[in-house]
Amino acid sequence: MPVYKITLKDIEIQGSIGPDLKFFMSSDAAGFSDRKVWKKKDSTYLLKGEIPITAPTTVDVTARVVEKDKYDDEGQEPILVSLKPEDTEVPASLSVTVKENYGPSSTRKPRQATFTFKLLFTLRTLDSEQRKVRADKFVPVLNRALDTLLPAVSAGCTLDRADTFSLLLNTANHESDGFSRVAEYNNGSGEGLVQMIPKTYDDMWDRYLELPDNKKLAKALRQLAGVQSGKPDRALLKTDSCYASGMALLRYIEHGAGADHPVPPAGDVQAQSRYWGKHYQTEEDPGLMEKFVDSWKATFEPVVPEKPAPKN
After folding, report:
1. Which of 178, 190, 248, 291 could cysteine-pair with 194, CB 3.0–4.6 Å?
2. Would the CA dihedral through 257, 262, 268, 271 be positive or negative?
3. pLDDT digit string (tens) for 247-297?
4. 294 contacts: CB under 8 Å, gap ≥ 6
5. Residue 69: pLDDT above 80?
6. In degrees rounded to 5, what are phi and psi of residue 174?
């Protein structure tokens, strides 16, 4: 879900009513409020709170400037700010004329000042939203890989497409930190969204795909790689996610997917994490399996909107 952050870029003042002021902004639609002491030397700060937006909306924003005394000064003017999900930045200007209040018994002529608040509503995308966008782009790539490879599996290998799709999607999601990297952290040797190491890649081609029963799989993988013969360049793992997805499926097939070890049902992330740990990572570490589930949550678990802050 797109989220707007609001920055107070500048405050212009005409007149003077006191040296120590507070700025207050609230919006029922946004569900946030903030109070800060304003100092002339520091008039730019990020206002607390966010505005989640999925459709065009109008935000009612009110600013109030008050002095640090027991009497309420006059002056409070709202503005309406229109926001759309496709807008990246929306500037807004809010002017408030404040008349000082000395109390009912005072005979002093009240001073007044006009404050113009220059705001900037900046659209940002939550990390979870960015991960979902990248996942959506990967889906057709994965489907193309399955379209090519599934017809090539041997008769003894039974792979449900939906279950296999879900397993590979969540494998790539976890291995690539939400489809964001094709190289392993800390100069590791894992390559591509599926983080396959060179030793595994070479063994699959030099040994496993040389077996007579796997000729169709080898042909299908070469088709994905765009070559007619031989072992495709390992660099394709980083540059061709469709081919990398096919190699990830091959890794699972080699470890008995669809034969000795049925693929977990789509949507059972806990079972997938154990399956990934045993047959892909080949290290049944509970901590690593937990991270697999955490990766799924970070990308696919629905975000629960924050409750509006209580009104003052």
Report:
1. 248
2. negative
3. 999 999 999 998 889 999 998 999 999 999 999 987 778 888 999 999 999
4. none
5. no
6. -70, -45
* Cα–chain center distance at 254: 33
Give the domains, in start order, of the chain with CATH numbers: 2-125 (2.60.40), 128-300 (1.10.530)
Residue 154 contacts residue 250 (beta carbons within 8 Å): no
268: Cβ–Cβ under 8 A, 6 or more apart, which residues?
Answer: none
Q: The tokens of 302 are what?
A: 């629905």
pTM over 0.85: no
Whether residue 82 contacts residue 73, with contact meaning beta carbons closer than 8 Å, is answered with no
Identity at 31, one-letter amino acid code: G
